[in-house]
Specification:
It is a single chain. The protein has helices spanning 3-23, 31-48, 55-76, 85-100, 106-124, 129-140. The protein is an all-alpha fold. The protein has 2 domains: 1-56, no CATH class; 77-145, no CATH class. The radius of gyration is 19 Å and the shape is flat. It starts with a helix and ends in a 5-residue tail after the last helix.
Length: 145
């Protein structure tokens, strides 16, 4: 059986299990999101134990969870904090990168730190008339989506 079918079957099985958990408990969560998260977590552990090798499948699933977390946070935060969505999303992607254990992490950490500092400075200067238009553009970037 192909690895993708195993992954899809695992997600489906966990999804059904989580639907039963929701039916018999008061827990509220997205069963699809949790299914994907639990599946890639299991296969990431299997990867580190040497029983699973497909980093592409893991990357797609982890990236999907990163975008899901991003979307959830975007819905929950105050509009003025939308200015931090880009550094937040890139930080989530970096966490996925670290989880997969590929490549150097020093340069991305430095880049992300600089990006966060830049966006914090822009946020702090949002009342400055010269910066206001830029801040408004960044904040409204994803407003209609």
């Amino acid at each position: 059986m192909s690895e993708i079918v195993i992954i899809f079957g695992s997600i489906t099985g966990v999804f059904v299990l989580l639907l039963f958990v929701q039916a018999f408990s008061k827990l509220k969560f997205c069963a699809i999101c949790a299914s994907v998260l639990l599946t890639w977590t299991l296969f990431l552990i299997l990867y580190y134990l040497g029983y699973f090798e497909n980093l592409i499948l893991l990357s797609v699933l982890i990236g999907g969870s990163a975008v899901g977390i991003f979307s959830l946070v975007k819905k929950k935060i105050k509009e003025q904090l939308n200015i931090f969505l880009l550094p937040f999303l890139l930080t989530l992607f970096f966490i996925a990168f670290v989880l997969l254990g590929v490549g150097s992490i020093l340069e991305p950490i430095i880049f992300l730190a600089a990006l966060w500092i830049l966006f914090i400075l822009i946020y702090l200067s949002r009342r400055n008339p010269k910066m206001k238009k830029i801040v408004e553009k960044v904040i409204s970037c994803c407003k209609n989506f």
